[in-house]
Amino acid sequence: MVNFKDLGLVNTREMFKRAVAGGYAIPAFNFNTMEQMQAIVQAAVETKSPVIMQVSKGARNYANGTILRNLAKGAVEYAKELGCENPEIVLHLDHGDSFELCKDCIDNGFSSVMIDGSSLPYEDNIALTKKVVEYAHQFDVTVEAELGVLAGVEDEVVAEESHYTKPEEVIDFATRTGCDSLAISIGTSHGAYKFKPEQCTRDPKTGKLVPPPLAFDVLHEIENKLPGFPIVLHGSSSVPQDEVDTINKYGGNLPDAVGIPEEQLREASKSAVCKINIDSDSRLAMTAAIRKYLAEHPDHFDPRQYLKPARENMKKMYIHKIVNVLGSDGKLG
Ligand code: G3H
Ligand code: 13P
Ligand code: ZN
User: Which residues are close to ligand 3, an ion, with C-beta < 5 A?
Assistant: First the structure.
């Protein structure tokens, strides 16, 4: 048994309380590699921001859970080495899909877990979430639950209003499960293709897709039902078009990739939304930098040569999100 406190990590409780009260959101960046971890820590330290480093089941399969946990432990020590005396770093399981997986993470140093029962019938989601909460709280680990279904990764269909979280269910769900935060569905989805072209309009000048707005009415109804309760937005990459253009210029093929406009995430951050999940934008920043570097240096083959600009580009993106979109800069407790 490794408790997160022994690794210098923190859970989400205090940081969410401050974020909801202060009208900003904590960044939750997925990581699979050392370079992503380094870029996240550098960005968080330079901006004096709390940060959530999250690991999916796929990340555990790719990189190995023990290695990722030790990278998170290293992240705390690295942040201190960079001059941050008291870093606030959460190690979070993203989209846990079983009690056993959540338990394994809780027993091995994670300070926060998500149990994603959103594809289950309502009562089954409650039962599973409650079971994880009861186990996690014994060790002061915080739990994120999900109600409503995001399109994409979770159900292979594009966002539809019928999948939005039902505001009339949230009080019952939060009360009966005891979860610490709730991921909701208001029109975001995972990946770099969040909307079909037919759901969007096109900017006549650039030819780029303009997506439909998020369902802020649903968000506000939920906030009214659960005042001050921490709300989470998944699928919140913005799919920066300059990165998409770079990828396409240097041999990639991502036509009509489209994300959530940053102004909408800025608006959501001012509400009870206190955790915003970003993964695809990091993948795009990394891939764009590597494609460009290799195209411009066809004779280079040392991975450090192309991973360095990739790490720099991710760091720039993380800092931009923290400072210009989520507003968590300068918010260390
Ligand atoms: O929710 C999805 C995250 O972007 C994680 O993706 O399962 O490919 O690691 P992944
Ligand atoms: P994006 O694919 O929009 O980055 O979403 C990431 C996410 O929600 C991880 O849980
Ligand atoms: Zn997600």
Answer: 234
Whether 157 has a pLDDT exceeding 80, the answer reads: no
pLDDT band at 144 (very low <50, low <70, confident <90, very high): very high
Task: Tell me which of 149-153, 190-194, 226-230 is least confident.
Answer: 149-153
Cα(318) to ligand 2 centroid in Å equals 14
pLDDT digits (tens, 9 = 90+) for 117-128: 999 999 999 999
Quick check: CB of 130 below 6 Å from ligand 1?
A: no
Q: Phi-psi category of 177—alpha, beta or left, where left has phi over 0 and alpha has psi -120 to 50? A: alpha
- The span from the CA of 301 to the CA of 303, in Å, is 6
Q: Measured between alpha carbons, how far is 320 from 22 in angstroms, rounded to an integer?
A: 19
- Catalytic residue, from 6, 94, 107, 124: name it: 94
Nearest 5°: the CA angle 64, 65, 69 is 125
Q: List CB contacts of 121: < 8 A, sequence separation 6 or more.
A: none
Distance (Å, whole) CA 58 – CA 329: 29
Q: What is the pLDDT of residues 4-55, one digit of tens each?
A: 999 999 999 999 999 999 999 999 999 999 999 999 999 999 999 999 999 9
Ligand 1 close to Cβ of residue 283 (< 6 A): no
Q: Which two tokens stand for residue 88?
A: 């606030």
Nearest ligand, measured from the Cα of 118: 3
Protein residue closest via CA to atom 1 of ligand 2: 235
Asked if 162 contacts 129 with a C-beta cutoff of 8 angstroms, the reply is: no
Q: Which atom of ligand 2 is nearest to the CA of 194?
A: 3
- Strand 201-202, strand 209-210: pairing: antiparallel
Q: Is the pTM of this model over 0.85?
A: yes
Q: Catalytic residue at 94?
A: yes
Query: What is the C-alpha to C-alpha distance for residues 91 and 113, in angstroms, rounded to an integer?
Result: 8
